[in-house]
Design goal:
The complex is a heterodimer of chains A (176) and B (152). Chain A contains 5 helices and 10 strands. By secondary structure, chain A is an alpha+beta fold. A 6-stranded antiparallel β-sheet of chain A has the order 1-2-7-8-9-6, with helices on one face. A two-stranded antiparallel sheet of chain A has the order 3-4. In chain B, the strands form 2 sheets. A 6-stranded antiparallel β-sheet of chain B has the order 1-2-6-7-8-5. A two-stranded antiparallel sheet of chain B has the order 3-4. The chains are: A alpha+beta (176), B alpha+beta (152).
Chain lengths: 176, 152
């Protein structure tokens, strides 16, 4: 495959957005592969996301987050124009519970796209990809983002990275 | 290290659930599930129905530029709500196992408190069907609806 300049530029931005922000950062997921229409990520086991305290199995909600992130990111990689891809729906089948203390691997692929909709498939497994813990299908809308003000977003982002911006928010937390 | 459920553990679990029902405190069921405090979900009884809510916190953000809640958090919250609904309101001596989960996103989840309510549509011998819906300002304007099946 020829060198894909857009992907080369987009890859670090997407990785940063998913790993260093909000819920992705909190979960501690790592994007291992980012290609056009295809995402791979890994989630190391952690005890604070357990859903069944009797068995130590991670909560299904974590699998939802991982697959939503992977499918959403895969959908973003196929957008050529400035656009966003909000999730329309997501359907998840749990084949068997995840085993504790083992990382979870996730793969998402865009298998079809039309002018308005992006169709994705996702798979989550631990040791054997042929014996997955969950399978999902997720559909995304293509929404033109001409209305989004990118310079305002950049300013907000920069402000958050600055030490004084961070201090202001931690002061607020300290007052409580 | 693998944790096998022993009868003893299950007994403890059942005792705690019974105590929560007796005190009419669904929040103590919530507190038994580590994932609930991970996303910050809480529960209470309101007019004899369970109401779940998720206060805004930075770790639940998916898109920092809007900012909007992470779609996966909304999904996880609804799945958790559905599970707690079953544990609290049905007399089952085990943690229900989720089989499938279907989620429709209706609107972007803005960075504010999100509420949820569940309905148990059918309880069979093996399978339970639950729907959950999430909203922010107005219960009649949902941001997401979910439907899930649990095995017992």
């Amino acid at each position: 495959m020829a060198f894909d300049m857009t992907m080369a530029l987009f890859r670090p931005a997407l990785k940063y957005a998913m790993e260093k922000n909000g819920h992705g950062k909190t979960l501690g997921l790592q994007m291992t592969e980012i290609n056009r229409g295809e995402i791979n990520l890994v989630f190391p086991y952690r005890e604070d996301v357990v859903g069944n305290p009797l068995t130590g199995v991670v909560h299904g909600g974590v699998i939802v987050s991982l697959l939503d992130t992977a499918c959403g990111s895969a959908a973003m990689t196929v957008l050529n124009t400035p656009a966003v891809a909000p999730t329309m729906d997501l359907r998840l089948d749990y084949m068997h519970p995840a085993e504790p203390n083992k990382p979870i691997y996730v793969e998402a692929k865009v298998y079809r796209q039309t002018s308005n909709v992006i169709f994705c498939r996702g798979l989550a497994w631990q040791e054997d990809k042929e014996n997955p813990i969950a399978h999902c299908v997720a559909n995304f809308m293509k929404v033109d983002s001409k209305s989004i003000n990118f310079s305002a977003i950049a300013v907000t982002q920069l402000r958050r990275l600055m030490p004084w911006g961070r201090r202001a928010s931690s002061d607020k937390a300290g007052d409580k | 290290m693998s944790k096998q459920t022993s009868d003893h553990q299950l007994e403890d679990w059942q005792t705690s659930i019974d105590a929560a029902r007796l005190e009419k405190c669904p929040q103590s069921v919530m507190e038994m599930i580590p994932y609930a405090s991970f996303i910050g979900a809480e529960a209470k009884l309101e007019n004899d129905r369970l109401l779940y809510w998720l206060d805004k916190r930075p770790s639940n953000i998916g898109n920092p530029s809007l900012p909007a809640l992470h779609g996966g958090v909304i999904g996880g919250f609804l799945e958790l709500a559905a599970a707690v609904e079953i544990i609290y309101s049905l007399d089952i001596a085990a943690v229900p196992k989720v089989v499938d989960f279907s989620l429709d996103y209706l609107r972007a989840g803005r960075y504010k408190t999100t509420y949820a309510k569940c309905h148990i549509l059918r309880q069979g011998k093996k399978l339970i069907n639950v729907t959950a819906s999430a909203w922010q300002d107005d219960e009649n304007i949902p941001i997401a609806t979910a439907r899930c099946h649990f095995l017992i």
